[in-house]
Amino acid sequence: MDSQTESHNAHTELLKKMTEMDGRLTGSAASAYAYNKINNILLMQVLAHLENRDLEEIRSNVDNYIARFTEEYMKKNA
Fold it and tell me: Is the pLDDT of residue 1 over 70?
C-alpha cells in the first residue's frame, strides 16, 4: 500500500510539473507571437515611410503573403 501511495504522489507531482511547463510554453508562444506581430507592424511602417507607399497597401500584401505561406505550410504538414 505504501508503494502505491508513493507512486500516486510521484504521478501527481509529475502531472503538476507538466501543467506548469505547459503554461510556461503557452505563455512563451503567446509572447513570441505578439513580439512578431509588433515587429511586422514596425517593419511595415518603416517600408511605407521609405518607399512613400500607403501603409494599408503594404499591410494587405503582408497579409496575403502570410495567408499563402500558411496554406502552403498546412498542405506540407497535413
Answer: no
Which residue, 32, 34, 37, is CA-closest to 63?
37
Rounded to two decimals, the pTM is 0.51
Secondary structure of 1-18 in the HEC alphabet? CHHHHHHHHHHHHHHHHH
- Are 54 and 48 spatial neighbours (Cβ–Cβ below 8 Å)? yes
Q: Which of 11, 65, 15 is nearest to 43 (CA)?
A: 65
pLDDT in tens, 8-19: 888 999 999 999
Convert 8-61 into a string of H (helix), E (strand) and C (coil). HHHHHHHHHHHHHHHHHHHHHHHHHHHHHHHHHHHHHHHHHHHCCCCHHHHHHH
Neighbours of 49 (CB within 10 A): 10
